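Cross-check.
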Amino acid sequence: MDNNFQYLDEVKDLPIEQKTSAPKLVLSAICIIAAFVLFFCLKHNVLYNILGIILLVIGVFLFIKRRSQRQYRATGSNITQQSFFFEMSDFQRVNRMLDKPLADEPPLHFLANGGVRMDVIASDDKQFAAVQLLTFVPFQHEPATPVYSFTGEQASIIISFIENSKSIK
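Predicted model, tokenized:
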């Protein structure tokens, strides 16, 4: 597909920011410091060494993997990102819904795989959503629409639509 649409992950002007979790950083620092205290300041004992290794691993893990969270800038609510698949026959209906979200839109049947992938970034408080549709061309999904960004009531409608669609088996 020959278009100039960016992938959802590449869009820089969405109202999302990385926030560092201060409590997790403090906890990781405490674990690392406690591990060094157990290693070097207390009597060398196998139990202390094992406890020190465990604390060091936990501290490093918290520091590397859990130090930041993406948040919606306006409310500070955490952001989640998901992808959903559906049939190409539903593409136009979903695209129209993204152009003008309506609260009474019937849910969609999501599949394990499909010709269309819907990438969604949504805030936990349902006040922000960004959605993009991608179509499958051999070997990958490519953007078929621009990134739609919603706030307030429209975001709530989009997120409710997705939640209702997820509940259909």
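The chain has a mean pLDDT of 86. The CA atoms of residues 77 and 125 lie 6 Å apart. Passed to J.P. for a second look.
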